[in-house]
Write a structure and sequence with these properties.
heterodimer, A: 80 residues, mainly alpha, B: 555 residues, alpha/beta, eight-stranded mixed beta sheet, five-stranded parallel beta sheet, 41% helix
């Protein structure tokens, strides 16, 4: 999967889980910039990403991923 | 406190017209279960059930029940989900059991669903450990036995089986956020809770309509011949045998069975009679349609014959053409997709969320027989000279009784399930019925009926609230099965006399009209009621005489 494709898919998932328009999801979006993105939504997002990409993050990564860009990098790392 | 958004406006309007209200439900959990409400609400909206959630904050399990005006108490939920972790049972069993008892006492009006004791972390599997009292396996078993004993004593508490969720344990989410279950596990729990909530609300389906070829047996009767059909106690035919056994279990729990199959009737009936391992013989089916008519038409006529609404039907067929035709023509009927591989039939049936029930009444266990008697009654009717002669020949006896500890589950069930002959459509849960029975101003009556062909059990309910010279008829309902034999008139006659004896002069009733219960209005007029100022009134000096062919007893 190309980096760009990953980014598009991740943004779609973020938008779906947080119930916001996809054009509001930017590379530097994070819990600080999007109000709906609380800790529970974050876990929901993690689970949705794992399901959609069929991957599993490490516990530490779930803590440290903050921006959409970082999430994309982690997804890429886990993809075969 | 965090309340989730309610259902979408469109759905809300449609459920208002269906006279349904939002159900208040509280989630109190010792793990992070905040993701569950959304999953459950979504599943239940498909069944037009709308929930209003209260989610207790983390670690408030005991304060919600101990504080006099805790947020949960102020919310006054109809259902409480009480979800525990394994350590709640393993490390502090006594306080957890006492907590369950306190919830039962402090929320007498709520139905409380509690997790059993289960395991999360994989254990070293050592068979010797199972009978070692110090092992976790042994303790969990012992705690569950104790839990069952406790819950048998608490009318409003029921157990949720979490025992099969160990494979869904997600240690990452658990250590990170105290969510013990994976996404898949949460979905599974949501399904379990969805089925349980439907059971609490009495939304159980009533009739299961079954195809024959490749559903009750493997293969096609007309092509393969009866001797080559797959239905056996071993080999691949055992899948169908097990499947039939599960259906038999549903039959014994009160689900009515019917056949709808495109087949040669004589041939199919012979196979049902003769196949050596056939479990569901002809006498287990309340209605049989084996013909070449379209299945939607057949199901409709079964519904008419059994006097049941189409929305209480589930239809199982292996052919997608038949399924989609029925789905399209009879949208009220539930038509689940069947697995392509018949090995999965038994587990598929076990997972269907339509047949759960919290407690079985005696009527449930006998229902199949009752419908068989009904089929015989119809045959008698065809031979009688006049309808009244026919009724007289049945020797019908009607027994009116104040409710007791044996009849209250059935009474609650009838208020929840009866849609057609139901005056007010007031729905009551078991605990509410018990409360009314304790109230001095309120009388709850049940009516049962029997005749020469059989005992129909409790088939009607009346609830009267006395107010000086006036008896307010809060509930008057009757199971459709027995309508049209004069039993409803006899019941009203007896109720009117009982109210009269307590000193009242008239009965006041409020008819709650829906598109299903029109027959009640017709009945009220026939039973001597007159309409005035939006109410129906019966002058107790003028109670119409009951049908002469019915013997009324009052206990």
């Amino acid at each position: 999967m190309m980096t760009k494709d990953i980014s598009v898919k991740v943004k779609k998932i973020v938008a779906k889980v947080l119930e916001i328009p996809v054009d509001k999801v930017l590379d530097n979006s994070s819990q600080k910039t999007i109000q709906n993105w609380d800790s529970l939504a974050h876990l929901n997002l993690v689970m949705e990403l794992e399901k959609e990409f069929d991957i599993a993050f490490d516990t530490q990564e779930v803590f440290t991923m903050e921006t959409v860009e970082e999430i994309c990098k982690l997804v890429k790392k886990h993809l075969p | 406190m965090r309340l989730l958004p309610g259902p979408r406006p469109g759905l809300w309007v449609s459920c208002l017209t269906a006279m349904e209200k939002k159900i208040k439900i509280a989630l109190v959990s010792s793990f992070t279960a905040d993701l569950l409400p959304q999953l459950i609400s979504k599943k239940l909206e498909d069944f037009e059930i709308h929930l209003d959630w209260y989610i207790a904050p983390f670690d408030q399990m005991s304060s919600e029940v101990k504080l006099v005006d805790s947020p949960c108490k102020k919310f006054a939920p109809a259902i409480i989900l009480l979800l525990f972790l394994p350590e709640d049972f393993l490390n502090r069993k006594e306080s957890t059991l006492s907590l369950i008892r306190q919830y039962s006492q402090n929320f007498p009006k709520a139905t409380i669903l509690v997790t059993n004791a289960y395991l999360l972390q994989p254990q070293q599997l050592d068979f010797c450990k199972i009978n070692n009292p110090k092992s976790v396996y042994y303790q969990i078993d012992a705690i569950n036995q104790e839990l069952v004993k406790l819950i048998m004593k608490l009318d409003n508490v029921h157990l949720l089986n979490f025992s099969n969720l160990q494979s869904q344990f997600d240690p990452r989410l658990y250590y990170l956020a105290k969510i013990p279950f994976s996404r898949e596990g949460l979905e599974k729990i949501a399904s379990l809770l969805t089925a349980s909530i439907q059971a609490v609300l009495g939304k159980r389906k009533k009739c299961l309509v079954l195809d024959l070829d490749n559903v009750l047996w493997g293969g096609i009767l007309a092509e393969d011949g009866a001797e080559h059909l797959k239905l056996n106690v071993d080999g691949e035919g055992k899948a169908f045998y097990d499947f039939q056994n599960l259906i038999l279990e549903l039959y014994h729990s009160g689900i009515i069975l019917a056949i709808c199959s495109k087949n040669d009737k004589q041939l199919a009936l012979k196979a049902i009679k003769k196949l050596p391992y056939m479990i569901l013989r002809e006498d287990k089916f309340a209605a049989i349609r084996i013909n070449w008519l379209d299945k939607a038409q057949n199901i409709k006529s079964i519904a008419q014959e059994l006097n049941l609404g189409l929305d209480s039907f589930v239809f199982l067929d292996d052919t997608s053409f038949e399924r989609s035709a029925v789905k399209k023509l009879l949208p009220e009927v539930v038509v689940p997709e069947m697995p392509k591989d018949f090995s999965f039939y038994p587990s598929f049936l076990a997972k269907l969320p339509f047949f759960d029930s919290l407690s079985l009444s005696e009527e449930d266990t006998k229902r199949g027989e009752l419908y068989l008697q009904e089929r015989k009654r119809n045959e008698l009717k065809a031979n009688a000279v006049s309808f009244e002669d026919f009724l007289r020949s049945l020797n019908i006896e009607v027994i009116v009784k104040k409710i007791d500890k044996w009849s209250f589950p059935r009474v609650a069930q009838l208020t929840q399930k009866t849609n057609q002959f139901n005056l007010s459509l007031n729905r009551y849960q078991e605990v509410e019925v018990l409360q009314m029975a304790d109230d001095k101003k309120t009388s709850v009556f049940s009516v049962s009926a029997k005749d020469d062909l059989g005992d129909a059990g409790i088939i009607g309910v009346a609830i009267i609230k006395l107010n000086n010279t006036e008896g307010f008829l809060d509930t008057f309902l009757m199971s459709c099965r027995v309508l049209g034999r004069g039993i409803e008139e006899a019941f009203m006659y007896e109720i009117a006399n009982l109210v009269k004896k307590s000193g009242a002069e008239k009965i006041k009733a409020r008819y709650n009209p829906t598109d299903k219960n029109l027959m009640v209005k017709t009945f009220l007029k026939k039973a001597g009621f007159t309409e005035l100022n939006g109410y129906f009134w019966l002058d107790l000096k003028r109670i119409p005489t009951p049908p002469s062919w019915i013997k009324i007893k009052n206990k």
